[in-house]
Amino acid sequence: PTRGRVRLDELVLSTLTAASIARRGIGRVFQHPELVADLTVHDNLMIACHGSLQYGLGSELLRLPNVRRQERMAAAKVADILARLGLADSAETNVRSLPYGHRKLVDLGRALLMDIRFLLLDEPIAGLNDSEISRLREILLGLRKEFGLGLLVVEHNMPFVSRLCDRLVVLDLGKLI
Question: Is 174 exposed, middle or buried (0-12, 13-18, 19+ CB in 10 A)?
Fold first, then answer.
C-alpha cells in the first residue's frame, strides 16, 4: 500500500510477507487458477498440504512411520475437500483436461487445505457459467456457515455478491462510495 494499513483483527498484514500471511490462516484464490497443469487434481491438492507436514528430508527418504502417517492424514484431508467440492470423481484426472469451472474449484480446494480462517477471492466467478456460479456460491455459503470462514470478495457481479455477503463495501477508483 502507498498509505494506510491492512489489518485482520489486531494483526497488521501490510508489513508481512505472503508466506507469513498464509501461516496466519489467510488464503487467497486468484481470478485465474494457478495450478500445476501436468499433475492430477489429487496431486495439486496434496501440494497445499506440504507446508503442514512435520518431517525432514531424511525421514522422507527413509519413509519412516511418521512420514507415512502424516501423508495418510493429508490424503484424508484432500479426500474430504474433493467430496465437499464435488470433485471426488476427478481426483485422478489431469488438471489440464478439466473444464475451467472445475479448475477454479481445485484452486479453491488448495486454499482450503491450508487451514485458513479468512479467504480472499479475486473475481471468483470470472469465466463461469450460471450453474457453476450458483454452485460456487452454495459452496462458499456452506463454508462460511460450517467453519465461520471469513470472505473478502472482489467481484463485479452484484447479484452474486449480494447473495453471498452480509456486508458490502463498494469502491470506485479506490474511493469508498
Answer: exposed
